[in-house]
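Supplementary Methods, section 5.1.

A reviewer requested that the exact input to the structure prediction be made available. We therefore reproduce it here, unchanged from the version used in the analyses.
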Amino acid sequence: MEEQNKTPVTEATEEEKKTNPFLSFLARKDIVFSAKRYGIDALGAMALGLFGSLLIGTIFNAIGLIPGLSFFKTIGSYGAQAAGCAMAVAIAFALKAPPLVMYSAALVGMIANAQGGAGGPLAVLLIAIVAVECGKAVSKETKVDILVTPFVTIFVGGGLSLLLAPHIGTLVGYVGKFIGWATLQQPFVMGLIISVVVGVALTLPISSAAICAAIGLSGMATGDPGLALAGGAAVAGCCAQMVGFAVMSFRENRWGGLVSQGLGTSMIQMPNIIRNPRIWIPPTVASAITGPLATCVFKLQMYDAAINSGMGTCGLLGPIGIILGWFNGKYPDTVGVMDWIGLVLICFILPALISWGICLLLRKIGWIKENDLKL
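The structure derived from this sequence is encoded token-by-token as follows.
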């Protein structure tokens, strides 16, 4: 019976290959044009590449502020230089590229990131995808593969970087300037929108960190206080999701869940959200409250790498980014008690209290049931 079940699948596949050679070629090369592969797999991998270079460098920079540990800052300073290479190699890995294509993607990422300016991460994402898929298409198709594959990958990626990356950077710059301008004009509304949208993106199987990096939600590159405020709102939204889910699910997941969600990612709740979307209400409401408080009351601003704006409490990188802005002299003139109180309230205490309180109410009315948040 098992053999009978296998036969039709094999015959159908062979028939499809005969009738459509192009589809057969794509299947053989594992080139899949899909929103999931490019919008989730590649984007998520790009975020990991950023984490393994720029973000871990940021952590090293923070440690380097401690007297006697300045060598950490020396090491961390190279993180930004490696970011383009790391992102492109991560994308190639997600697209299941052969080794030679993957290694060649490093140079593509370096060029795209440098040429893209403020839009470097977005340029790397778009250009690396095209270059890697072209490299996969020619991989092992000739007897001189060791020359042809890297040549095609780098030629396509390098050429697109020179032609398109600067324009991508310009476009991202316009988007960033608009967000910065809007945040200064309407800090309450924009604080709410950015906090909720970026926070939701953090929990979804996409990369909030990559999104923040792509549109430059930080005042680091431009000195724009509006973008810095927008980055602070993004931090608030991400922290609300992570801390919120960690606290409200404590009765089901105990300390392991508290750490894995509070310092890891709230994305692990996605299966539970699909089963009962109502569990998403408490942390989302928390982000809608803390975002405007961050922009209007405490005026939290991000003057470190834009990717930190989308990290929340993952490795404490969101709060660390804001703190680094303080001690790098960006703002405020002097760091006072209220600055620390605002940071702790926005990133930790308010998300925990608001999410826990709303979750308790939803449990009482039956919208959230026992084990709905069980990991």
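The radius of gyration is 23 Å. These observations are discussed further in the main text.
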